[in-house]
Amino acid sequence: MEKRAETRTMKAVYNRVDQRIIDELAAIVGSAGVTTDAEKMAVYAHDETSEAHYFRMPDVVVKPANATEVSEILKLANRERVPVTPRGSGTGLSAGCVPIFGGIVMSMERMNRILEVDTQNLFMVVEPAVTTGEVQRRAKDAGLLYAGDPCSAESSQIGGNVAENAGGNKAVKYGTTSRYVHGLEVVLPNGDIMRVGGKCVKDVSGYDLIKLFVGSEGTLGVITRIWLKLLPLPKFKVGLLAPFEQMQDAIEVVPKIMTGSGVVPTSVEFMDSLSIEAAAMYLNATLPHGDAGAYVIIEIEANTQAQVEAEYEAVGKLLMDNGALEVYVADNLSTSQRIWAARKCIAEALRLVSPVYCMEDITVPTSEIPGLVAEITAIAERYNVIVPCFGHAGDGNIHATLLKKDMDDDVWESCKAKVLSEIYEATYKRGGNLSGEHGIGAKRIDHFERFYDPVALDVTRRIKEALDPNSILNPGKVVRPA
Ligand SMILES: Cc1cc2nc3c(=O)[nH]c(=O)nc-3n(C[C@H](O)[C@H](O)[C@H](O)COP(=O)(O)OP(=O)(O)OC[C@H]3O[C@@H](n4cnc5c(N)ncnc54)[C@H](O)[C@@H]3O)c2cc1C
C-alpha cells in the first residue's frame, strides 16, 4: 500500500485523504456529493469565528443524503484513520465545524426534509439540515410553536442547534434546544446507527442518551433525524423597549424583572451603548434614544389580550420605577420587527466596527449579571480594549465581545489572552461557566481544561474515548484527541 503523508497537530496522527479515498466517498454518495475544488471548499474552512488561525481547509467535502451514507463514510474514515468534521450551516462561534486536522468535512446540507408535522401529539420530525427558521414557520403554519429561537435562526440548521444545544432569545421562558428534543437518530463514529426516544413526553428507559448527544458538538455522533416537541402557539405578544441613561441601571433591572414583576417574560435582552451605536450604524437608522447608556428589550406572550396587557403594564411600571427613560410598546408586527432588528443585527454590526473580534458567551446566575457586567467594564478599561456587552441577560448569558481596534496582531493576541482570562475568572467566581450557548469547540479547550471540574473533565474524555477510540469524529473539539 502506498505510504500517505501524515498530519500531526496536538497529539493525534491522521492519514491524508488520497484519491483512492475520494473515489470511495464518491461511490458512497455519488460524484455530485464530493468536492475537492479549493474555491468551492473555501467556505467550509471556517465558521463565524473571525480569527484566521481558526481557518483550515478540508481535504474533501462530502454531502451524504441519508443515515446509511453517513454510516458508510464513518466506517471508511475509521478504517483509513482520517478525521471527519460534521458541518451544519457554519454559523457557529467556537470553530466547532472547522476541520482543524483537515480530512473530510461532512456537510449535512442534502438532509433537509421536514418528515412529519404531527398535530395530534405536537411533534415535528426533521432531518438535520432544515433551517431553524423553517422549523419555526412550519410549526406556526400548523398553529403551533417551536420554541427554539437563536438569533441565527434564518441560517443555522436545526441539527447544528441540537449539536450545540443552542439557546437564544426565548430561553428565559422556554429553555434551550434540549428541552424540545425527545428523540434522535445518531450515527456513531464506528458507523452504527442508533435511535433513541421518539414522541413520548415521558421516558426514563435507561440513561438519558438524548441529553448526552444534545450539545456534544459533533464529537460523539452525527445527528441524522430529530423528534422535536412543539407547543401551542401563544395568541398575543407584545415587545417593550426601555432605554436607560446609565448602563448599570439597565443591567440591575434584569434580575428585578425576573423576581419582582410576577411575570415570566419570553425574552429579556440587553444592549450596551456600544452595541446600540453599532446597530444604528449597521441598520443606517435612528434608534429611539440612540445615545442611551443601554437598552433592555422584553417580549411578553399570553393567550388573552387582557393577560398580555396586565403583564406588560406590570413590567413597564417596574422599568420606569427603576430608571428607564421611556418604555416603547410594540404590539404589532412591524414595530416589533423594528425593535428586534436592532438586537438581532449586533453580531454583524460589530463586525463592521472591527472585522476581527472575539465573541464570548459567558453565563452566570441572573442575580450575578450586574456585578459581572461592571467587572467586565473595569477589565476593559484596565487593558484599554473595547468590549461591548449584549445578550440574553434574562437567563444570565452575556456576549462580551472583544474588538481588535487600532492594535497590532501580537498586541491583540496577548491583550485578548489576559482580558479573557480575567473575564473567565470573574465569571467562575460568580458561579458561572464559560459558555451558555456557543460551546467549547476548538476555541475554548485551554480554558475548559483550566476551569472545568477535573473529575467531570476526565468523565468527558472517557465518554469520548469509549465512543470514538480512534478519535476520528470532529477531533480537537471539546477535548483534545487521545
Ligand atoms: C449572528 C449570529 C447569531 C447567533 N445567535 C445565537 C443565539 O442566539 N443562540 C445560540 O445558541 N447560538 C447563536 N449563534 C451561534 C450558532 O448560530 C449556533 O451555535 C448554531 O446552533 C450553529 O448551527 P449551524 O448549523 O450553523 O452549525 P455549525 O456551525 O455548522 O456547527 C456547529 C457544531 O455542530 C456540529 N454539527 C452540525 N451539524 C451536526 C449534525 N447534524 N450532527 C452532529 N454534529 C453537527 C458541528 O460539528 C459543530 O461542532 C449565533 C451565530 C451568529 C453568527
Helix content: 25-40%
Question: Which hetero compounds are present in the coordinates?
Answer: flavin-adenine dinucleotide
Number of β-strand runs:
21
CATH classification, class level of one domain: Alpha Beta
Structural class: alpha+beta
Strand content: 15-25%
Largest sheet: 8 strands, antiparallel
- Overall pLDDT, averaged? 94
CATH architecture of one domain: 2-Layer Sandwich
Rg measurement, Å: 23 Å
Low-confidence stretches: 1-9
What is the approximate shape? Answer: globular
What's the CATH topology name of one domain?
Uridine Diphospho-n-acetylenolpyruvylglucosamine Reductase, domain 3
Number of helices: 16
Distance between the termini: 26 Å
Would you spell out the secondary-structure blueprint of this structure?
Elements: E1 6-9, E2 12-15, H1 19-29, E3 34-35, H2 38-41, E4 60-62, H3 67-80, E5 84-87, E6 104-107, E7 114-118, E8 123-126, H4 132-141, E9 144-145, H5 158-164, H6 171-174, E10 181-187, E11 193-197, H7 209-213, E12 222-229, E13 231-232, E14 236-244, H8 247-260, E15 267-272, H9 273-283, E16 294-302, H10 305-321, E17 328-330, H11 333-344, H12 346-353, E18 357-359, E19 362-363, H13 369-383, E20 389-392, E21 397-403, H14 409-429, H15 445-451, H16 454-467
Parallel strand pairs: 4-6, 5-6
Antiparallel strand pairs: 1-2, 3-4, 7-8, 8-12, 9-13, 10-11, 10-12, 14-16, 14-17, 15-16, 15-20, 18-21, 19-21, 20-21
Helix pairs in contact: 1-3, 8-13, 9-12, 13-14
The site of flavin-adenine dinucleotide (FAD) has 37 residues, from strand 5, helix 5 and strand 12.
